[in-house]
Specification:
Length: about 450
C-alpha cells in the first residue's frame, strides 16, 4: 500500500482485519488479575496467564462484561461457587476479540463456566497435598503432644468475625466455670492478603511459643470458594512446622481445606473448637478426680495394712522389749558398781595430789621472790646512775643556754655599738617605713635621742 494514512485510518484497518480474521467466539482460560465494577454496572477485568512457576506473567489483556450480561453471569457464578468472580481466580470465559481506536485491544466476555473454577481449585488443592506428602511434613503437627490442660489459647482470626465472637462467648460462658486465657492475633481471613496475614500471625506467636498451649485458626461460615484461601501451600507448610498444636475452625460443613488437613485437629466451626477445648479441660478434671480417688483408696489400704502390721509387731515386740529392758538393767547395775570403785580410786589419788602440789608451789614461790629481789636491786642501781647522768647533762645544757641568752640580751647588743630605731613605738626594720620629716627615736646602751628625718638615700 502506498500513500499516507491517518492514525484513525490505520486503527480502522487493524479493527477490520481482526474482525475478518477472528469473527468467532472463543473459550479462553485465564487468571483474573484485577476486577472492578463501575457506576454503570459494567465489569472491567485484567486477565493474565502465568508461567508454570506461577510467578512471572507471560500474557495480559483487558476484558469487559457489559452490565446487562454481568448481572446474569455474576449471579450464576455466585450461586454455583458461593462467591462472585474475584482476583486470583482461574476462569473459563467465552470471549469475542474487539479493537477500539481509543482503547486498543480487549475481550468482551459473554459467558463464564463456574465448574471450571471449582475444578481448578480442587486440582490446586490436590497438588498442594501431594507436595506436602512428598516432603514428608504432612502429618508433623499431628505428631505433637497435646497439652493436658489447654488453657492458654493463641487465636488467629478477625476481631469482627462472627465466628470469633461466637468462639469467645462459648469459651468464656462454659457451664463448668473453667477459665481460659486467650490472645487474639488479628488477621485477614479472606482475599489475596490472607496468606501473608496468617503467616505473619503464626510468626508472631512463634516468637514466644512457651506462653501458649495451643493455636486456633478461626474463620466462621463461608462458601466453598472461601476455603480456597486456606488451600495454600505456604500456610499449610507453616502449620506443619509449627511448635504448638494447631486447631482449625474455618467453618465449612462439607469440605476441608489443606490447612485443616495438616492441622493437629480440624473442627467444623469456631464453636466446635471452643467445645473441644472445654471438653479437654473437663476430661483432664475427670482424670484428676479419678486419680485422686485412686490415691485416696490406695492410701487407705496402705494405712490399714501398716496398722495391722503395727499391731502384729506390737504383740511380738512386748516380750522382746521386756527381755531387753531386764538385760539393760543388769548391765546398768554392773556399770554403776564399776563407776563407784573407779571413783573411790580417783578420790584416793586426789588426796595425795594437793600435798605434792603445795610443796612444789612453796619451792617455786621462794625461788621467784629471790629472783625478783635481785632484779629490783639491779633496777634501783641502774635508775640512780641514769638520774645522775641526766642531771649532769641538763646542768651543762642550762649553762650553755644562759650564755646564749646573755649574748642575745638587747642591752649587751647595744653596748657593742648597735642602736634601735623606733617610730611611733614600733621598731623600724626597713628604710621604707620612714618618710622625710618623720620624728624617730634612737636608743643607745646609755640613753635615747630623737631625730628628724631630713633626707632618704
Amino acid at each position: 500500500m502506498t500513500g499516507k494514512l491517518s492514525l484513525t485510518e490505520l486503527q480502522l484497518i487493524i479493527k477490520d482485519s481482526l474482525y475478518m480474521a477472528l469473527p468467532d467466539m472463543f473459550w479462553v482460560t485465564a487468571e483474573v488479575s484485577e476486577i472492578k465494577e463501575n457506576y454503570a454496572g459494567h465489569c472491567y477485568l485484567e486477565l493474565i496467564e502465568k508461567h508454570p512457576d506461577e510467578k512471572n506473567v507471560r500474557a495480559r489483556v483487558r476484558a469487559i462484561i457489559w452490565s446487562n450480561r454481568y448481572r446474569f453471569l455474576k449471579s450464576l457464578f455466585e450461586n454455583i461457587t458461593g462467591e462472585p468472580p474475584g482476583a486470583g481466580m482461574k476462569v473459563l470465559v467465552r470471549v469475542k476479540v474487539e479493537y477500539h481506536e481509543l482503547y486498543g485491544l480487549s475481550l468482551v466476555i459473554s459467558d463464564i463456566d463456574p465448574s471450571f473454577t471449582i475444578g481448578e481449585l480442587a486440582l490446586k488443592r490436590q497438588m498442594i497435598i501431594k507436595k506436602l506428602e512428598e516432603e514428608g511434613v504432612f502429618s508433623m503437627n499431628k505428631e505433637l503432644d497435646f497439652p493436658f490442660v489447654p488453657q492458654r489459647i493463641a487465636v488467629i482470626s478477625s476481631r469482627s468475625a462472627a465466628g470469633y465472637l461466637d468462639f469467645m462467648k462459648h469459651l468464656n460462658d462454659n457451664s463448668y466455670g473453667y477459665v481460659f486465657y486467650t490472645a487474639l492475633f488479628e488477621t485477614i481471613m479472606q482475599g489475596t492478603e490472607t496468606e501473608k496475614s496468617v503467616i505473619s500471625a503464626l510468626d508472631r506467636i512463634a516468637v514466644n511459643p512457651e506462653i501458649f498451649d495451643v493455636v486456633t485458626i478461626l474463620r466462621g461460615g463461608g462458601s466453598q470458594s472461601d476455603l480456597s484461601w486456606f488451600d495454600n501451600y505456604n500456610i499449610a507448610f507453616h502449620v506443619t512446622q509449627y511448635p504448638l498444636p494447631v486447631i482449625t475452625g474455618i467453618g465449612h460443613e462439607k469440605d476441608m481445606s489443606v490447612t485443616d488437613m495438616v492441622a493437629y485437629r480440624a473442627l467444623k466451626t469456631p464453636t466446635a473448637v471452643a467445645d473441644h477445648l472445654i471438653g479437654c479441660i473437663a476430661e483432664a478434671e475427670n482424670q484428676l478426680n479419678e486419680m485422686s480417688t485412686d490415691i485416696a483408696d490406695n492410701t487407705r489400704l496402705i494405712i490399714e495394712k501398716y496398722r495391722n502390721l503395727n499391731e502384729s509387731f506390737k504383740v511380738k515386740l512386748i516380750p522382746v522389749a521386756r527381755l531387753m529392758i531386764s538385760d539393760q538393767k543388769e548391765k546398768l547395775s554392773n556399770r554403776i558398781i564399776e563407776m563407784i570403785n573407779i571413783g573411790k580410786e580417783y578420790i584416793a589419788r586426789a588426796g595425795l595430789y594437793p600435798a605434792n602440789q603445795k610443796s612444789r608451789l612453796v619451792s617455786a614461790a621462794g625461788s621467784f621472790i629471790q629472783s625478783g629481789k635481785i632484779a629490783v636491786d639491779r633496777k634501783k642501781f641502774d635508775l640512780k646512775s641514769f638520774t645522775m647522768n641526766s642531771l649532769a647533762n641538763l646542768t651543762i645544757r642550762t649553762a650553755g643556754l644562759e650564755n646564749s641568752l646573755n649574748i642575745l640580751n638587747p642591752e649587751n647588743v647595744l653596748k657593742r655599738g648597735y642602736t634601735i630605731t623606733i617610730k611611733d613605738g614600733r621598731i623600724i626594720k626597713s628604710a621604707g617605713l620612714v618618710a622625710v620629716d618623720d620624728i624617730v627615736e634612737t636608743k643607745f646602751s646609755d640613753g635615747k635621742i630623737k631625730s628628724k628625718v631630713l633626707k632618704k638615700i
